[in-house]
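quick one, four chains, predict together pls
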Amino acid sequence: MTLLNTSFRTNFLHTYFKTTVVIPDTDKANYKAVWLLHGYTADDTTWMRNVNIEQLAAKYDMAIIMPEGRNAFYTDSNFIPYYSFFVKELMPKIQGMLPISDKPEDNYIAGVSMGGYGALKIGFLNPEKISKIAAMSPVADIEHFRNNEKSPMPLNTFDTIFDSPEKIKDNQIINIFNQVHPDQKVLQLCGDEDFMHEDNIVLKKFLEDKLNDNYTWLPVKGDHSWTTWSKNIDQVLGWLAK
Amino acid sequence: MTLLNTSFRTNFLHTYFKTTVVIPDTDKANYKAVWLLHGYTADDTTWMRNVNIEQLAAKYDMAIIMPEGRNAFYTDSNFIPYYSFFVKELMPKIQGMLPISDKPEDNYIAGVSMGGYGALKIGFLNPEKISKIAAMSPVADIEHFRNNEKSPMPLNTFDTIFDSPEKIKDNQIINIFNQVHPDQKVLQLCGDEDFMHEDNIVLKKFLEDKLNDNYTWLPVKGDHSWTTWSKNIDQVLGWLAK
Amino acid sequence: MTLLNTSFRTNFLHTYFKTTVVIPDTDKANYKAVWLLHGYTADDTTWMRNVNIEQLAAKYDMAIIMPEGRNAFYTDSNFIPYYSFFVKELMPKIQGMLPISDKPEDNYIAGVSMGGYGALKIGFLNPEKISKIAAMSPVADIEHFRNNEKSPMPLNTFDTIFDSPEKIKDNQIINIFNQVHPDQKVLQLCGDEDFMHEDNIVLKKFLEDKLNDNYTWLPVKGDHSWTTWSKNIDQVLGWLAK
Amino acid sequence: MTLLNTSFRTNFLHTYFKTTVVIPDTDKANYKAVWLLHGYTADDTTWMRNVNIEQLAAKYDMAIIMPEGRNAFYTDSNFIPYYSFFVKELMPKIQGMLPISDKPEDNYIAGVSMGGYGALKIGFLNPEKISKIAAMSPVADIEHFRNNEKSPMPLNTFDTIFDSPEKIKDNQIINIFNQVHPDQKVLQLCGDEDFMHEDNIVLKKFLEDKLNDNYTWLPVKGDHSWTTWSKNIDQVLGWLAK
């Protein structure tokens, strides 16, 4: 197993940006890759520090790419044009520099909480780059998240990213879906005690109606925490790998 | 020499935050400390990667603390309440966890460019915590910096931090000084070919008039780059240490 | 939670040496500490990459200190005087620099495989520094380990550390115990399918006879792998913390 | 500029092994590479921490690869078969995984002190992999180094690597050269106050006699320290790049 802590100067974000990458020992020229996104408050090392990512990368013989999210909600905003950076700079940079395939059938995106939102958003908007999406306990409705007292994100921080009712509306996953009509394979899970469980059920109903057999709901127990995610990440990566 | 890459979860910034710290081998219980701030686009490792910081820490027997700045201009904003974080969380955390003195006479702040602005701002506003300030090629006038076509910072990013004419005005170094009337020792330098040289001369005249013998201007050649700063950092740290 | 990647120049080992440290957020001046040793082929980051160490450090409110072992078997040899380094340089350095208690009642040592051997050895030889020992799947008999075809360690590497029959004999855990007659609390576990299970049973019988109520055997299932250790580390740290 | 801290499990060394790599931003598929070796007591981060390596990598548009040396003298020994690891595992691994050319005309090796010895040794023995060698203040005579009271390396450590008079003899740079008669380009420098200056002059006379125009001696002032090396590394990398 090779672990790479990469840091490169990005022109989009005007700073050095960290991505942690795990590559199996099978010496391929072009690995299948999972872009694995973290949640609010976490960083590029969080997945490694909570879950045995290397063992899973070896088990499924996939590279796993964990970029820092900078609390930017994987969205373009005035302070951090994160979405554009991710699609236009990060993906080609990593695929060009490391032995990572750039074919859509080899690129999958997954994430948890804010990263689950990011996986759905980046995935749906880029079917020519990404073929499978796994959303773990995603922020399924950003307006509800904004107003939920259990949300860890301060209102003024949220409002610097989604700075108008129109921007909130345009960035709802359901509206993004309706705009592009993607037909990728999607897996969704959300613990039955998660404070965003209801919003996830609404999204589930919408997506299974639209995607039919391409949609998979994984029913799991638990709350919005690493206890839930560490129990299910093996199954999620297995679904992406098959 | 001990090098520490620290990462801790901050309640102010709602994320993990990195600080690189260098501690000499003299086994003191309470080192004098230089809080060394970086410029726009850099991070907590930039000083180490451009200048022989460890050799200088050993030479002057001081700890050097290099926090990441996240392009936040060392200022409170909706997205990143950096200034409050620095003063209320970072300083006590580092002083409490590491063998760093918390006495003002042992704490100095220095920085380059945006970090030079940060050093003057954080220093002037906290004379009970910090006794000496060294500003290398600081952003001496943030309004001019905003409008200068040579500035590397996009307007929309700048405007998320300084989001009104009043906020710009309140955060000008000269206005901060006039508000608190600090009497710390201040060193300022700026290369003669720096694109912010004129603004630095204005600030120089203001500060030498206010601070008299407590103010030192170090005349240096060069532009706004590491070539200039690497030539002068030894002298700057020596001035802080004496 | 604070994560520290420390690197310092050691006079014993004549090189820079890495130790990963995790400190809870409870802002104590002197944390109880677990010195957590890794096995052959691993390094200072291995525990973090396989087990949710930070969650456990928070759960038990203890600092966890994970030094790199450099395949040195936690033993003094001509190439690497590791044991002396650990006791005379690493422990005082870390206890002096970080908020770690230096009282024996607050310092515990644990490890897995080669690190389980190290925990027993360093622990037994230093009752004035360490009060509890947890050995997970330890190399319980180094001579058997040397000659076991399932051992991952090449003979010539082993023989540079234990370079005579006398040195092997002197460094057997049972002989170390008989030499110093320590009376610390000891926990031992070894999976029922571990290739060193038999040697562990011999050591178990010896230690429970000598230590009586101070000795605890934790019967577990599994082989010599992280699958076994990740299942049991919570219970091991819980035993140390109580 | 991209900075990569890589760590991979090596089958030769039976452990995780760290290599720091710097890659310019010019997005090439196959960069020219300098394998840059450190001296006794240093590690894979030492070059970055003492010299502005990234600026130089950009200036000469070359990747710079800095593996940890583990005090192994870049030589096969019972404890660490470093030489075999470097040639058979490290070079193909890095060239296969990163955008580094594997052509000999694109691969250069350089080093300082013990790393200067390593550069000469690995370079001379592998002309089909490496076309230019730069030795900065190399250990030019390992027997003299062993017996020199100014040497930082303990005798017993040295003797675990070079464990017989024959092994010392076989590993002298002059004898390695005579064995393989390489005809690569070689640059050598050594400060006039270096404690190994005389040995360097002997090697200089030998190599200029054998290599003629392929040999370059760079006369420099200074002692055996980073003060000397930081002044000259720009010129050394420039010589490799031209």
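The longest helix of chain A spans residues 82-97.
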